[in-house]
Amino acid sequence: MTVRQQIVEDRVEELASLLQIDSNYAFLRLAQHLITGQSVFAFDPEDLTEGSHDKQIDTITLDEERDRATVYIIQSKNTEGFSSNGLIQMRNGLHWLFNKSRSDINTLPNIRLKDKILEYRSIQTNLGPSNIRVWVRYAAKGHTAQLSHEFQQELKGIRDEFDNGTFAEFSCEPVGADELVHMMRIQEQRERRIDADLKIKYDANNPSLIQYYAEGLKGLVCSVPASEIARLVNSDTAGAIFDLNIRRFLGTRGAVNKDIQETCSNPDQSYLFWFLNNGITIACDHLDAVTDPDNPHIKLD
Question: What is the number of domains present in the chain?
Answer without folding.
Answer: 2
